[in-house]
Amino acid sequence: MEAFGLLLHGFAVLLTWKTLVLMMVGLVLGIFVGVLPGLGGPNGVAILLPLTFTMDPTSAIVMLSCIYWGALFGGAITSILFNIPGEAWSVATTFDGYPMAQQGRAAEALTAAFTSSFIGSLVAVLLITFLAPMISSFALKFGPPEFFAVYLLTFCSFVGLGREAKHKTVISMSLGLLLAGIGMDTVSGNLRMTFGSSELLRGINFLVAVIGLFGISEILLTMEERLALRGHAASISLRVVLGVWKDLPKYWATLLRSSFIGCWLGITPGGAIAASFMGYNLAKRFSKDPESFGKGRIEGVFAPETAAHASGTAALLPMLALGIPGSGTAAILLGGLMVWGLNPGPLLFVEHKDFVWGLIASMYLGNVVGLVLVLTTVPVFASILRVPFAAVAPMIVVSCAIGAYAIQNAMFDIWLMLGFGVVGYVFKKIGIPLAPFTLALVLGNRAEDAFRLSMIGSGGDLKVFWSNGLVGSITTLAIVLLFWPVIDGLLARVGLTQRAKATSP
Amino acid sequence: MSQTDLEIVVDDPTAPEDDSPSVVSSGTVEIVVCLLLLALAFTLGYDNWRTGASWDSTGPEPGYFPFYLSVILGGGSLYGLIVALLTRRAGAETFVTRAQARRVLAVFVPTLLFCLVTQFLGLYVASFLLISGFMRLVGKIALWKSLLTALVFTAIMFVTFDVAFDVIMPKGPLEAAFGR
pLDDT by residue (tens digit) across A60-119? Predict the structure, then answer.
């Protein structure tokens, strides 16, 4: 019940005209970046971050998180009307969403997408409201070894559970961790990997890297493809909305299952992409008529959208409670917190109650306002796609440059952004994942500090990571996850052998 | 309205042709990337070893953690190099076709020039030149539309960042002449 009282306090912090206006601005900008090809949640938040530098942290994070919600909503518009998934997690939405639009049911598909996004996010926000304070108060007991073990768990689960080739994830992560170490060593004050360059003294700001890796590289990739758009226009009437909402109880199992999958994969680093596909596949598997999926079935829109949005929102839970982001966008929001001098993690709930509960309250309000906004403004946002890409592309490049420069007022960062853009383009095309790179760049210094403090405390004895039940279990779990593909293979082989023995006469 | 009979069509006059020849295969690019990463791992590893990658009386030296990360990066890159070399013959997937490369360069080169111009003439002048030039030369959009769009967008950016949110951007001689 304490959480409920604190949440009400959060609403009190939030309900000022200034914050509400910022919320609306954030949502509109978010839907805008969600709809535009070549932009998306992480890019939008990173590029627009400088707008919030002069605000107080609560207003700033409310605006940024609303950009995030807006971008999540906006992605569905292009997926359904144009068959263009703005983000990878929207791919599954196109399977049934676009056929619905072709059948003249675009408004129904969009309502289903927006409503299920809302439901998925709502379930995840409820989880954050009640679980994050508990996790953070538990994490207050953590020392450096426990924190390093949690970081290790995050890194190992990316390698062990990721879909990409393992060595590529290792390359991506170690490169990110190395680049995070460039500049002045926070413990000894020594310079590392600067090679005499005064520009590298500051280190590499991960937001600059993110803008290049996601923003510039996406422009290069988008330009590479054919950009002849052909889609449908739609506006949503109250009758259609009420019609879809009336049928919602029929799909309660799909919505609940997808919310659960989304929350689970959001807290662990499985991510929204895996969540949306898993949500879709399970909905199809449990359906009485699986053959109708892919031909314009509304359940095929409900399932991936609910799962993706539950996952995207739940990724904020470990960020707030432990300071470990569960997704690329959560990592950027975490970077925003650090820009304003806030230290994400368990102490945030103790030292900055107003901020944390204002943010959680904004998640509720942002979702409700976002839902109403997208339902009423679809034609306006869909018409953005009429603008030729030759006009949109240079504007995105300029926005990226402004974002990169404004973070540290350094011209060098614009060049860095361009360099990371090329790296991102090449990495994406040869299958080196960018999410572990971003995560490592954000967490690199914290992980190193936790490791060094642990080692100093133990006199260099690695047994410190098994010194008590808690740290020992987390470290062991991390190692199990790192070698999970091997363990899984062995288990499967043992299972097969036993089955063969059992069936042999 | 739940009808969707109204169709939005945006044609791309510069769309790449489907039968364009391959410039380079993904396997070759993977080999080059692994070699570059290997060189980077070696360089950073050497620098960290030089800074101090062992253990002293106060604990791990500054290069300790990054040195071992360089080793991991080097190991991953070496493994990637071997895998890429072994699988090279199996399938020559195209990394980029000639038409695609042309289009990528059509964005990359103006972006590179934009960064260069920003350094000397300031961000807003460079933005105006990039947007108007790109729209006109790459998008074949009417000159007046290109100039107007560039002017309006640059003005909005200036008002938003420099005036409303007090985020000061790099300026050049033109802005200086206007007293900013």
Answer: 878 888 888 888 788 788 778 877 776 667 778 888 888 888 888 888 888 899 899 899
Q: B59 contacts in A (CB within 8 Å)?
A: 452, 455-456, 460
Three-state DSSP at B22 gives strand
B95, B115, B142: which is the final residue of a domain?
A: B95
Calpha distance A45→A137 (Å, rounded): 29
| B135–A185 CB contact, under 8 Å | no
Q: Please classify residue A484 by burial: count the beta carbons closer than 10 Å to its beta carbon, then call 0-12 exposed, 13-18 middle and 19+ buried.
A: middle
Residue B33 lies in domain: 23-95
Q: Are residues B84 and B110 in the same domain?
A: no
Alpha-carbon distance values, B46 to A84, A418, A489 (Å): 46, 27, 37
Does B156 fall in a domain? yes
Residues B106 and B161 in one domain: yes
CB contact under 8 A, B2 and A168: no
DSSP element (H, E) containing B10:
strand B7-10
Structure tokens at A170: 């290792």
3-state secondary structure A99-115: HHHHCCCHHHHHHHHHH
Name the range with the highest mean pLDDT among A244-253, A365-374, A432-441, B140-149. B140-149
The owner of tokens 């914050």 is A19
pLDDT digits (tens, 9 = 90+) for A165-200: 889 999 999 999 999 999 888 777 788 888 888 888
Flag whether B49 is in a domain: yes
A260 to chain B, closest Cα gap in Å: 31
State how far the Cα of A202 lies from the Cα of A325, in Å rounded to an integer. Answer: 23
